Amino acid sequence: MDQSRAVVALAALAQETRLAVFRLLVRAGPEGMVAGSIAEHIGVPGSTMSHHLATLERADLVVSQRESRLIRYTVNFDGMRGLLGFLMADCCQGNPALCDDLLSVPACQPALAGADR
Amino acid sequence: MDQSRAVVALAALAQETRLAVFRLLVRAGPEGMVAGSIAEHIGVPGSTMSHHLATLERADLVVSQRESRLIRYTVNFDGMRGLLGFLMADCCQGNPALCDDLLSVPACQPALAGADR
DNA sequence: TCGATGTTTCTACAAACATCGAAATGTCTT
DNA sequence: AAGACATTTCGATGTTTGTAGAAACATCGA
Question: For residues B89 and B104, what is the distance between their CA atoms, to the nearest angstrom?
Answer without folding.
Answer: 15
